[in-house]
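My current task is to audit a protein record that another person submitted. My question to you is simply how this chain folds and whether the tokens agree. This is what I was given:
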Amino acid sequence: MIVPLTPNDVNHIWLVAETHFTARLLRQHLEKYPYLGWVIKENGDYIVGGYWKDRPAIGLIMESSPSAQRTELVNRLLESYKETRSDLVVLSEREVSHGLRLYLDMGFVALEQVICYEKPDVYVPYTPRRLTVRRLQESDLLALVELERAAFPWLWWETATTFQQTDRRPDTWVLVAYLEDQLVGYLILTVRGPWGHLNRIGVHPTYQGQGFGRELLAVAIEEMSRRGARTIGLNTQIDNTRSQRLYEGFGFERTGETFKIYGKWLDDRAQGMRS
């Protein structure tokens, strides 16, 4: 019998390999999302979900036990997402690596393919500067979310909450770029020791094609270098050839690594509007 997984059940289950949780964190997660955890009462096999980028419209299957009843667990979690009106459910990296065949058989498909780039130095070619770049402030959030909606496909949208949460991490910075009083673009950067990662570079469509992406990329490399990075990585969609040309012009090279985002639409009408 499949029943809700409650915080009181956590000490009675075996967490899966490469789990996202400690026992304490799983209890906290289930307190926040009591309808996104399910367990087989007889053997303790379980499944836990969350939300992609903290967005209720997109469910995230985080982890599940390699059970003979895994399909039933997945279907029960999908029902929960339908009940809460999610449009799409995607898979965590863990579920892709530990159960992709099952999910493909259940109708999950590849939504996006992402390629990885790396720059083995922090050299920046000469780039004219027109923008004022600074750390994110709360007063920027409304304009930043509007820029996000205009610049990126629906799947990749961040929210005001995720921008703030990201900027609070000790190794990550959200920087906004203004031309006079207009928000032109933004950056999300992470630096861990000698390794930097450009998590995000965005330019409002009104200002695209005017060299601001190139300027922001130069700022990103310089900021990460100043914080100790000596090698810089980034990811981009395989069909984003415009950005790929920009990155390659700054000395980024493909690493050969790729990964896919897998998901299942729960509403055909939403798929037509969002994809």
The longest strand covers residues 253-265.
